[in-house]
């Protein structure tokens, strides 16, 4: 019985010491489970463990010293930080007793000295602890020097154990070896008890405590020689392997679902000293620039902290987490040029996010919602660090989702924090949620504005800094302008006016000495005035608005030149009016390119301006350079991902701008090959691709200091921010949009220089490029309006007027209604046409086909075809006849049908499906091509959203009335995939579809000018598939009808375009032109009475349409003024005709191949 109690009280004493239960009233229990106080535990230990009174005395004095030290701390874990002191780096005073406690500790120190004759190592370790606490670091080192092999003390795995405790390690067949540092506690360990009773846990605790005290003593003795202390701390590094394998256990959820921290509680004293040692190593390394040691300590801290609950040492852990995040940001590029775009986040970001998640859990436990008049500064600083990490990783809006999650979480622990609202405004906008970003901006202005007013009455409020206020409001004003500029017509005018109001509020706290902010306000004011001139559509105030905008932009560039300032000033110089100066515009655009050579839109603008002055060769070269940027994005992105995977390619195609010339890295005078641009002003700027600071070598990387040597607290994270007024880093979708717009301009330029024949070949390259970048961009969406149901007619059999007469009167027999339409099951809708057999277009063949359709209602009419082919190897752009282009042509000629093995599909646009078509002749319609006329003239049923709108009177008019009977509507087509609920995604997809639709329409115009009418029709169909709400589809359809001589069909199509967009400039101009043009090509067997000639009415209507257009949205369109002059001439108003012609001539001068607003937008 005696041996059982002996082992029991040995294990209870070790458990109490290892668990560090200094303040517990009952740290142990009897064999029967009765609680024991410290005094009773020691008494029973002395009673049942004969001959070990020295052990009990050491334990008693250790507990007494721990009580004295914890008396001056917040808790038994010796947290010293108060709510006011944040992120303190003060290392002095830790583990040192205050003066009023020295007397009590001295008596215990003397008592331990009387036990020194026993020559136990544990007594010397306890004496070293007392000596340091009493302020005698030299005596501490002296006591530690008496212990042999202190730093080689590594407890060995025992012979058996239980998984329920960390003080025993599972194993079998091995023997527990006592070490010198464990002293007498290990020598009598009972190896049969499955708890923390073998003494190895306390041995490890004393070892870490001794190493920590040794380093702390060197800090006290040599305050200016931090390397001595760091050397002492590094002696513990070999022990971390044993610590991780034998003691570190991550908590698992218990049966109640809460984390089980039993293992941590049993080893609490060990983890206190481990944490203290690593924390001091981190602080010393960060202060004294020992980067190698710093990263080692941070890694050890992250690894061991997984075993700690979030309530443990919150002050130290907050400080270390802050230092870690700050070190990552400074090391990987926060204050250096950031990468333009990364498909995947850099490797260091994953480490940062892991630290952030741990830090967030700590803050959730140690902070709470602030009281009135208080602020949760810890959470606000944490939010700043998260935003700084996002900025350091590239500041790409696509990667901002995790930061927004942090911000929403922070709103539950703060009250109307200006920092959080400021960050949310920016990140919501960059991530695509513009409506919520606008709401957050308004809330920020309201909260901070009211707080600022209260602060003037000596009331402490969160008013944010003046610079932050100005920057945020300028950013908000430009955000509103960017959003408004993307909308058509007067839409967005209220946003522009609100931007002006926001900017006025920004001026109230502007520092007149801050030139940078003054320039940003002037630039924003210029953008607002420019958009007001466009959006208001007021001819009386437009000139004044444009002049004011130009003056503000000039002043902005004079105060503080920026790339965006030069860009907007270049646009201002190119606008029609008294300030137009194309040479200045080109110069300003060139300066924008020089300031930021990585921005595609700057190159695009410079190319457009060069085309306006007919510098074709220079424009081609500039646009080529801009197109190469996208290739650089892809190349560098692939290299960056390869580096993350360990495959680093040392060779890179580095280019630099020098005097407008593009040079290779081999020709750079200073030998710069680091992947950055060397601008003429000597500043290094990031090159066209991705320069991931995490992936550069240690030899070339220059580490920035984490902290200053004498700093006592961590500087605010706001010092890590970049200006939010910088041009946002483009997302992958933005890069695709900018590059595609530039390539559309290249095609337009080629058509101007070489004619439509040269542009036709280049369209293939553009589509191949899209296939390479986006893959298969064709969705399985049927053309609901153009491929909609309707009677099939042969234009070779029925003349145009007879066809119209038959459709208007519904000449189908009552018992032979049109069959239900056969659903189009494939996409895209441009079919590959097979050669029609003789007589295939006859009514007999049509009836036979209808009978077959009734039997096979779900038979697919046409085979699958596609506008693009995604080859297994990427297409490369090559003007002089690349292999990929030849391959495309070969595939087109061979008549590719369906989908090949890899699922790639190829466009059939250039396939000669329009054989037998002449410009003014009738169109022989093939069986698989939908009938535009039947769809457009059908009045009984409309298949698409376009046709489901209220029909215009001009479309439904007919000579003999409307049909008496209507065919039954077809069954609704099966919906493939429900639309995604994400508003941001829907907006982005809609924008991309509109852009691709415009691309097809541009190609349709090229085919039409080439006389390839059928290909033009197919391209129009593809455009309608992409975006059925695009009014330009109907404009191109009207031009298609004009090419065929179908005058009335063209007018109907233009009226449809105006129904979709009532103030569409192109539709209005072309409709006015048709009204003013005699219908010379009308082919009808019915003569039109002279009384029904509406030429006079059409002339007045054209004058009214064009007159209204030139006062508003089309004020700078020369075609509108030209046809308005023609209308005035037909009306006999010669003076107005002369003025309109003069203005049309003036506007036509210095006009580029594309409008700047359509190609680039009016602001960035």
UniProtKB/TrEMBL annotation:
Keywords: TPR repeat. The keyword Lipid metabolism does not apply. TPR repeats lie at residues 1031-1064. It comes from the Eukaryota. Residues 965-981 have a biased composition (Pro residues). Residues 805-901, 943-981 are annotated as: Disordered. It holds the Pfam family TPR_8. Involved in endocytosis. Belongs to the YPP1 family. This is Predicted protein. It comes from Laccaria bicolor (strain S238N-H82 / ATCC MYA-4686).
């Amino acid at each position: 019985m005696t041996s059982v109690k002996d082992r029991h009280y040995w294990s209870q004493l070790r458990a109490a010491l290892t668990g560090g239960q200094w303040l517990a009233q009952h740290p142990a229990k009897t064999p029967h489970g009765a609680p024991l106080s410290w005094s009773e535990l020691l008494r029973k230990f002395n009673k049942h463990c004969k001959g070990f009174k020295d052990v009990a005395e050491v334990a008693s004095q250790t507990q007494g010293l721990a009580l004295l030290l914890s008396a001056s701390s917040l808790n038994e874990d010796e947290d010293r930080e108060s709510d006011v002191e944040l992120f303190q780096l003060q290392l002095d005073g830790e583990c040192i007793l205050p003066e009023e406690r020295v007397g009590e500790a001295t008596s215990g120190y003397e008592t331990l000295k009387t036990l020194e004759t026993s020559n136990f190592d544990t007594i010397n370790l306890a004496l070293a602890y007392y000596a340091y606490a009493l302020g005698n670091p030299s005596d501490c080192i002296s006591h530690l020097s008496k212990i042999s092999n202190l730093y080689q003390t590594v407890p060995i795995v025992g012979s058996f154990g239980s998984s329920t405790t960390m003080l025993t390690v599972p194993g079998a067949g091995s023997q527990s070896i006592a070490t010198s540092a464990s002293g007498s506690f290990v020598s009598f360990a009972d190896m049969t008890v499955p708890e923390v009773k073998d003494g190895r846990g306390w041995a490890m605790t004393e070892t870490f405590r001794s190493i920590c005290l040794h380093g702390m003593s060197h800090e006290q003795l040599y305050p200016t020689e931090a390397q001595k202390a760091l050397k002492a701390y590094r002696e513990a590094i070999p022990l971390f392997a044993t610590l991780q394998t034998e003691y570190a256990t991550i908590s698992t959820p218990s049966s109640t679902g809460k984390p089980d921290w039993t293992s941590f509680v049993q080893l609490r004293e060990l983890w206190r000293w481990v944490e203290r040692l690593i924390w001091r190593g981190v602080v010393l390394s960060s202060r004294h620039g020992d980067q190698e040691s710093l990263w080692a300590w941070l890694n050890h801290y992250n690894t061991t902290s997984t075993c700690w609950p979030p309530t443990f040492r919150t002050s130290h852990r907050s400080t270390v987490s802050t230092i870690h995040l700050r070190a990552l940001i400074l090391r990987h590029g926060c204050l250096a040029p950031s990468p333009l775009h990364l498909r995947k986040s850099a490797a260091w970001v994953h480490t940062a996010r892991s630290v952030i998640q741990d830090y967030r859990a700590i803050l959730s436990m140690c902070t709470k919602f602030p009281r009135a008049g208080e602020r949760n500064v810890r959470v606000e600083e944490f939010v700043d660090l998260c935003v700084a990490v996002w900025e350091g990783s590239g500041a790409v809006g696509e990667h901002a989702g995790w930061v927004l999650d942090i911000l929403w979480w922070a709103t539950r622990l703060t009250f109307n924090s200006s920092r959080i609202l400021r960050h949310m405004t920016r990140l919501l906008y960059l991530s695509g949620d513009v409506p919520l970003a606008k709401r957050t901006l308004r809330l920020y202005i309201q909260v901070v504005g009211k707080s600022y007013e209260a602060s003037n009455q000596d009331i402490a409020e969160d008013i944010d800094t003046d610079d932050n206020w100005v920057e945020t409001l300028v950013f908000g004003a430009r955000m509103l302008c960017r959003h408004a500029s993307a909308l058509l017509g007067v839409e967005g005018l209220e946003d522009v006016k609100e931007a002006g109001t926001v900017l006025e509020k920004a001026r109230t706290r502007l520092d007149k000495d801050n030139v940078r902010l003054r320039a940003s306000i002037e630039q924003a004011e210029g953008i607002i005035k420019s958009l007001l001139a466009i959006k208001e559509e007021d001819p009386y105030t437009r000139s004044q608005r444009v002049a004011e905008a130009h003056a503000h932009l000039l002043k902005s560039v004079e105060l503080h030149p920026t790339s965006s300032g030069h860009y907007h000033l270049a646009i201002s110089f190119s606008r029609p009016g008294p300030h137009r100066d194309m040479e200045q515009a080109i110069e300003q655009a060139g300066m924008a390119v020089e300031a930021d050579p990585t921005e595609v839109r700057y190159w695009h603008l410079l190319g457009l301006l060069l085309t306006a002055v007919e510098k074709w060769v220079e424009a081609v070269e500039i646009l080529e350079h801009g197109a190469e940027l996208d290739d650089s994005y892809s190349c560098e992105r692939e290299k960056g991902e390869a580096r993350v995977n360990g495959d680093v390619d040392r060779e890179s195609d580095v280019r630099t701008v020098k005097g407008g010339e593009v040079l290779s890295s081999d020709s750079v005078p200073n030998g710069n090959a680091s992947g950055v641009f060397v601008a003429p002003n000597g500043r290094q700027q990031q090159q066209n691709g991705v320069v991931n600071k995490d992936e550069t070598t240690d030899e070339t990387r220059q580490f920035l200091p984490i902290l200053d040597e004498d700093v006592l607290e961590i500087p605010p994270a706001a010092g890590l921010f970049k200006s939010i007024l910088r041009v946002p880093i483009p997302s992958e979708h933005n890069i695709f949009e900018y590059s595609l717009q530039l390539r559309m301009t290249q095609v337009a330029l080629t058509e101007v220089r070489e004619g439509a024949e040269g542009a036709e070949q280049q369209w293939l390259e553009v589509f191949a490029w899209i296939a390479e970048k986006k893959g298969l961009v064709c969705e399985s969406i049927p053309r609901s309006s153009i491929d909609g149901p309707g009677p099939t007619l042969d234009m070779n059999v029925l003349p145009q007027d007879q066809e119209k007469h038959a459709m208007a009167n519904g000449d189908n027999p009552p018992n032979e209604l049109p069959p239900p339409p056969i659903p189009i099951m494939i996409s895209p809708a441009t079919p590959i046409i097979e050669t029609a057999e003789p007589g295939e277009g006859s009514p007999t063949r049509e009836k036979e086909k209808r009978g077959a359709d009734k039997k096979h209602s779900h038979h697919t009419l046409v085979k699958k075809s596609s506008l693009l082919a995604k080859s297994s190897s990427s297409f490369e752009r090559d003007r002089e006849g690349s292999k990929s282009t030849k391959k495309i042509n070969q595939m087109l000629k061979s008549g590719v049908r369906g989908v090949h093995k890899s699922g790639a599909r190829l466009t059939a646009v250039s396939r000669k499906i329009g054989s037998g078509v002449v410009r003014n002749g009738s169109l022989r319609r093939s069986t698989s091509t939908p009938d535009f006329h039947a769809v457009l003239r059908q009045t009984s049923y409309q298949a698409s959203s376009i046709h489901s709108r209220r029909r215009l009177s001009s479309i439904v008019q007919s000579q003999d009335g409307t049909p008496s009977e209507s065919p039954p509507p077809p069954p609704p087509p099966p919906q493939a995939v429900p639309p995604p609920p994400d508003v941001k995604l829907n907006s982005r997809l809609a924008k991309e579809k509109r852009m691709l639709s415009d691309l097809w329409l541009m190609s349709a115009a090229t085919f039409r000018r080439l006389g390839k009418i059928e290909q033009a029709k197919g391209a129009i169909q593809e455009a309608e598939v992409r975006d059925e709400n695009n009014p330009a589809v109907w404009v191109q359809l009207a031009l298609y009808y004009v090419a065929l001589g179908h005058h009335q069909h063209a007018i109907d199509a233009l009226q449809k375009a105006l129904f979709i967009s009532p103030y569409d400039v192109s539709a209005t101009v072309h409709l006015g032109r048709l009204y003013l043009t005699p219908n010379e090509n009308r082919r009808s067997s019915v003569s039109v009475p002279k009384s029904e000639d509406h030429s006079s009415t059409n002339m007045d209507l054209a004058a009214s349409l064009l007159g209204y257009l030139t006062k508003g949205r089309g004020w700078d369109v020369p075609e509108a003024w030209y046809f308005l002059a023609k209308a005035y001439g037909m009306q006999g108003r010669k003076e107005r005709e002369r003025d309109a012609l003069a203005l049309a001539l003036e506007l036509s001068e210095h006009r580029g191949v594309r409008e700047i607003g359509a190609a680039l937008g009016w602001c960035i």
